[in-house]
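Deviation from plan, reported transparently: pyridoxal-5'-phosphate complex.
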Amino acid sequence: MRTEKHKYLVIPGPVEVRPEILDAQGQWMIGHRSNAFAELYARLQGKLRQAFFTQNRVFVMGSSGTGLWEGASRNCIRDDKKALHLVGGAFSQKWAEVSRANGKQVDVLEVEWGKAHTPEMVADALKKATYDAVCVVHNETSTGVTNPIRDIAQVVRQYDDTLLLVDTVSGFLGAEFRTDEWGIDFALTSSQKAFALPPGIAFAACSDRVLERAKQIQYRGYYFDFIEIEALAQKDNTPSTPPVALMYAADAQLDAIAAEGLENRWQRHMQMRDTTHNWAHSRGLGLYAQEGFRSPTVTTVANLKGFDIDAMAKFMSGKGFSMDKGYGKIKGKTFRIAHMGDMQPAILEEILSGLDEFLETVK
Ligand SMILES: *Cc1c(COP(=O)(O)O)cnc(C)c1O
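Because the crystal trials were delayed, the predicted structure below was used instead.
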C-alpha cells in the first residue's frame, strides 16, 4: 500500500505489512495467565508447526531474531566445547560474534561474501574437530545467498553430539524450509522478513535434543532459558509477558499463508527472484550471489554501472518506494531488492519500471 505518507518497503526487513495484518493487532488485550491466552497460544502452536514442518514445539518470544541467536548459543554450546560458525556475510558474522560475546569457543568456517557453504566444506571441518553445534544462516540477507541447508544437514547428522542450529530469519516462509525432514535441531526466525509481520516477535522450532543439551549447561541466562520457556510452553504459556498484539497479527498472517499454500508461496518468491534476475541482466547490472545459490527472497544487485545509489533511492522515494542501499562492506557497490513476504509480482514490476526510469536519467 502506498499513500502520501507511507512509502512501500522494498528493503529486506522490515518488509511491507498488509493493512489487515496491522489491524489484527488492534484487538482487546487479554491477560497472559487467562484461558483466552492459552487458547491463542495453542492455536498459534498448531499453525507454527505446520509452517516450520515440525512436530516439535515452536518457541514464541517477545524479541527480535538476535535474541534467539543469543538463546541458541547459550543453551546449545557447553563451556568446554566449541561451535562451528559458517560465515559468509554480515549476519552469519554477527551470530559468531554473539557466541563469542557469551564466552563460547568459536571456530569459523569462512567463505568469500557472495558464495555459499558446501556440504563438502562442512564435512572436512567436522573431520578435523569436535563441535557441540554447527551454526548456519539459511538465507544470508546481506549477500542474497541461500545456503544448501538440506545437504549441510545430511553431513552434520552423521555426528550424534553436534546440534544443527539454523537462522532462517529471511528465508522462513519465502524459501523452502523443512525442519524435521532435513534434520534441523533448532530453527530460528523473526517476524519482519518473509513472514511479513511487524517487528518484535521471534519464533524457533526446538527439538528435544536441544533441551537435553540445555540441561547440561548451568548458566543459560534468564530471558532465553530454553528449559524455563519449555516448562511454560507445556501450559500454553510464556515465562514473561508475551507480545500479545503481535501474536494476534501472527495468528491472522498464518491463516493467510495457509490459504495461499506454503508451496505456492515459495513458488511466488522464486518467480519474483527470476523476474528480478532477468531485469538486472538485461539492464547491464550484475548479480552478487553465486549462481545456483541465489535467494528467492532478496536479490543483491551488483552496481556494474556505477550509478549513485543514494540518487537511485531518492528517485524511488519520489515514486513511493523505500529502497535499500546495500549492507555492510558491500554498501554502495551493491543494493538489494527484497522480493519477500506478501509482495505480489505486479508490485515488483512497478518497482522495476521505476528503476528503469531512474536508469534513463543516468544514461
Ligand atoms: C535481519 C536478520 C537477522 C537479525 O534479526 P533481527 O530480527 O533484526 O534481530 C538475523 N539474521 C538474518 C539472516 C537476518 O536477515
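Residues 19-258 form a domain with the Aspartate Aminotransferase; domain 2 fold (CATH 3.40.640.10). We consider this an acceptable substitute for the interim report.
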